[in-house]
Hints:
This protein is mostly helical and 339 residues long. The protein is 76% helix and 0% strand.
Amino acid sequence: MALSSNSFSIKSSLLNNDMLIERRKNEKYAYFIGCFAQFIWAINSIQLKSYKLTFPKAFSNNSLVFWRSLPIWVLGYIFSYMKNIEITPHKAIKHKFWFFFRSFGNYVGVFLWLYMMNYFRVSTCQCIAGCFPVGVLFLSILILHESFYYRYLFGIIFCIFGTTIIVLNEKKPEVVQNKQNSNIFMGLLYAFCHFTIFVFSNFGQKILSKQKMNGDVQNYYLGMYNTLPALFCMIIENHYGISNILYVLYAISNGFLFYIANYYQSLALDYISMSKFLPITYMNTVFIFILGYLLLNENVYITDIIGSMMIMGFQIYNVLVPVGVQPKIENDNNLQNNK
Length: 339
């Protein structure tokens, strides 16, 4: 009887070990695709800053939002149809507040992001927006009652400190040179509004995912609630951006990038919790800093490098040293107890 009990304990221990190993493999996979998503987000942000400079006559805020949101709407419908996923009707959506904030909030968020980039480098804009995990983490713990580890808090503080080093060294505006752009207070005001929208929009995505709303369906509604108001404003403004076909194609490609980044980010969240995923989002800051230097010729300061190294260092640590009980020690103790 004792032998049978010991045999069961060993099998149970080995099973738990296999499950733990598999979970950590999934976590590493989630970290990888999460970082890839942040790289795509970085390219997406770099594109947004370049529109006004590259296509000054064809550019308008609403035309940009329309042409980038249209493919998101179309792709959301196509992928839902191909996967035989029913598009959730409005009446069946439980958390309508988070649904509309997630869907329509992105429309407002893009405008605020575009305004922010009139005052700061794109890397600095991302540093400010990169503080959003603090708000999302707070909402995840308060509303979703997700597990919390002090390590996540330390990681976020560490990353915020790295981004603060970058932001404090911000120089004069480098986009459109006019008197309005010298008003850094207005830039910070836009940044605060964008931060708030970004927090609630990202948390809304998590809420809808927990409601089992497929990511393609979420993108379908997000595209729709961005395309329609932008089209309405385009008609009023009588400015469609179609005078430059390259501008239209460039904006459409931005929508494709958005869809890809959103897809892989949602995929990563299938393997790890939102609170554990949050530190990965800071890689966006590092990627934008590099791409801003390479593609937009933005100034680079030693504080940028120090802050980026701090952010990257925590990501490497987060992957190599997983949160939780070390399996080898736990299993050795179990075997000794069974003996």
